[in-house]
Every structure is written in structure tokens, then in C-alpha cells.
Write a structure and sequence with these properties.
This protein is an alpha+beta fold. Helices cover about 30% and strands about 30% of the residues. α6 packs antiparallel against α8.
């Protein structure tokens, strides 16, 4: 399968892409390419639940339902102006019957959100970036956010308000955005430029480098969710522009819609179906007591250990009170993991009654020990 650069004008020939604002259409064009598929190949199969929206550019497709031809679509025809059999799960299969076809595939969730915001009079890019900040990539940070699975959980009205309430901040190389130990006040999105994240430790006052961040990356949410002080410093490593959202707006518009809360019974049901307890407390707290089979990943390590987690696993994130666990679940959700938060935390379960017993201690206790 080959891909070719996509001309902006091509997108305008399709419905409902022709109704998008120019900045959204340009952003879509940069992330979409012209694809080719050979004779006899399937573009998609009946019953599949993929979330892509497909448009036929050239060639001929046959739509099959239960093995029977129900429609023929030719590139350039009135039928080809609309998405190809857009229902999910797919109600039919699409097979190439010409020598080859050319087509484009667009993330359906992102397209749906763009259309919703456009049609509800959402944000104006110039209001956010400033009219003095033109350029083909000026709205890439927005599209990067829109493409994250976490944003799919946020109601369109909330996202509209998020973008409208964000404040622009221009910074120079070397300026500190967040200082370790300070109170949390804003959630940040990088529009342009790069940042470095470091954490000071008792053995390293200069700070250990945790990450480099660039356009579209976000930071600052942990302190806002958990009401804790900043656990790391963020410094600009180039001149750049950030958008920031206040603590109150972040909690109301972004944090709550992204969190999935469960009680103990629901959590245990998730684990019984193949889910995993993820305890974000410190190792010493974990050793004191924890849920059976739980994995310990302290909150301050989550970002560094994301690659070690399974994206097909539903995680139930827990701590004593749900404060740290809600921060951990937010980070996981933001990065496309399925994560739920144990409501009220472990302190509300019978695990907190015997803090001296953990899973290993219980297994090592013999009947005679228990009766003495």
C-alpha cells in the first residue's frame, strides 16, 4: 500500500468536509494522505468496529453484505462524495473491483469533534494564537490534543469552553514555567517550543531530568488534581508559547469528564474480568497493605513507566483516599489507557483494618499462628 501527499482542495470536494473551517481543513490535510489499494483487497470487513471515515477518490468499490453485492461505488460519482458505509460496526464489506483504488481515511472521532465545534461556534484560532502568529503549523497543538483518546471523553461543549478560557503565555529560553514545591495553579499545553522536566532529590539538588516536552504535550495536571505541591520543575529549553488553563477551569471542564469512578464491587468485577489493580502509593505504603494481585507503580513514576503498561488492560487505580489515584488515572486516560479510580480509596475498604497485613503476610500465616 502506497501513500501520496494530499492536496487541500481535494478534501473540499467531500461532504461534510466542505463545511469545516479553513484552519481545521488545513490541519486535517496535513494529517491525511492519499492511499492506494489493489484489486481484490478489502478496505474494511463487515462487522469491524474501526473508527475511520473513508472516501473513494478513484477506482471502483463493491459493497458486500453477507456475501451479496448491495452497491457499486465509483470514484468521482455523487455517491463517492459521501463517506463509504460509515456505520460502526461496519454493516458491509468494501472490496476493490477495479485494478486499484485511491482513497483517504480520516480518524472519525477527530472529524466528529471538529464538525461539532465548528457548528456550535466554538473557538477562533486567531483568538488563541494571536493574529501575529501565522504559519502552516500554528494550530497543530490543537489537533494533537483532539487526536488523543482522552479528549474523546470530554463533551464538545466543555472543549469549546476549554479553548476559549485558555490564556496565552510567551516565554524565553531558560524561563521557569513550574517550580518544584510551588502550589499548583495552571494546566499547560505547549503550542510552540520545547521544555525540560526535572525533579530535585536529596542526592541531586541540580535535579534529575525526567522528560523533554514539545508541541502538543501537556503538563501540570498532577498538582491540580491531587491538591499537592508541584513535584517537578519545568523550564523552557527554547523560546516558545504555552496555553494555560486555570485550576478551577481544569477541574470542572477537563478533569472530571475524563475520570471513571468505580466502587469496590465494580473494581473487583473489573479485575475478575482480566483487569489489574494499579496502586500508586509509595512502596512502603504498598508493603503495609494492598489489594490482592495489585501492582505498585508510585504516582511520580507513572510517566516514566508508561511503556511497561499493557494498553489492552483495564487498570483500576487506587491509593488511600483516591486523591493520588485520580491523578494517576488522569495521566493514563490522557495517554489512551483504560483506567478507573477506586472511589474513596483503600481507606474505605476492609483492607485498611489490618494495616500490618499485606498479601504476602497473609499467605505466610499458618493456621497455628492465626489461632495463637
Amino acid at each position: 500500500m502506497e501513500s501520496k501527499p494530499l492536496e487541500l482542495g481535494l478534501l473540499r470536494s467531500f461532504s461534510p468536509l466542505d463545511g469545516l473551517k479553513s484552519e481545521n481543513l488545513q490541519s486535517l490535510a496535513r494529517r491525511t494522505s492519499l492511499q492506494e489499494l489493489g484489486a481484490g483487497r478489502l478496505l474494511f470487513k463487515q462487522g469491524e468496529a474501526d473508527k475511520y471515515t473513508y472516501y473513494l477518490i478513484s477506482g471502483v468499490l463493491e459493497l458486500l453484505q453477507d456475501g451479496r453485492t448491495i452497491m457499486i461505488i465509483r470514484g468521482g460519482s455523487p455517491e463517492a462524495r459521501n463517506p463509504i458505509a460509515a456505520a460502526s460496526p461496519r454493516r458491509c464489506s468494501a472490496r476493490v473491483v477495479s485494478d486499484r483504488i485511491e482513497y483517504i481515511g480520516i480518524d472519525g472521532n477527530m472529524l466528529d469533534m471538529m464538525l461539532t465545534w465548528d457548528q456550535t461556534g466554538s473557538y477562533e484560532v486567531n483568538e488563541l494564537h494571536g493574529v501575529d502568529d501565522p504559519g502552516p503549523a500554528s494550530d497543530d497543538w490543537m489537533t494533537t490534543l483532539l487526536q488523543t483518546k482522552a479528549f474523546h471523553k470530554v463533551p464538545p461543549a466543555n472543549i469549546q469552553a476549554i479553548f476559549m478560557r485558555m490564556q496565552r503565555v510567551d516565554l524565553r529560553t531558560g524561563e521557569t514555567v513550574i517550580k518544584q514545591g510551588d502550589e499548583g495553579d495552571y494546566f499547560y499545553v505547549i503550542v510552540k517550543g520545547t521544555c525540560s522536566v526535572t525533579r530535585e532529590t536529596p542526592l541531586n539538588k541540580a535535579g534529575i531530568k525526567l522528560a523533554d516536552l514539545g508541541m502538543g504535550d501537556t503538563f501540570g495536571e498532577e498538582a491540580l488534581i491531587s491538591d499537592a505541591r508541584r513535584n517537578a520543575s519545568v523550564v523552557m529549553t527554547s523560546d516558545g508559547t504555552l496555553m494555560r488553563l486555570s485550576k478551577e477551569d481544569f477541574r470542572t471542564l477537563l478533569n472530571e469528564p475524563m475520570l471513571e469512578w468505580v466502587d469496590l464491587q465494580q473494581a473487583e468485577d473489573i479485575v475478575a474480568r482480566g483487569g489489574q489493580w494499579l496502586d500508586v502509593r509509595l512502596p512502603s505504603e504498598f508493603e503495609n497493605y494492598h489489594m490482592p494481585g495489585a501492582v505498585n507503580l508510585p504516582l511520580y513514576f507513572i510517566r516514566l513507566k508508561l511503556k511497561s503498561l499493557d494498553r489492552n488492560t483495564h487498570y483500576v487505580v487506587c491509593c488511600d483516599t483516591s486523591r493520588r489515584s485520580s491523578a494517576g488515572a488522569y495521566i493514563l486516560s490522557e495517554r489512551g489507557f483504560r483506567a478507573s479510580v477506586l472511589r474513596h480509596g483503600l481507606a474505605a475498604t476492609d483492607r485498611s483494618i489490618s494495616p500490618g497485613l499485606n498479601e504476602k503476610a497473609l499467605q505466610d500465616t499458618s493456621p497455628s499462628d492465626a489461632s495463637s
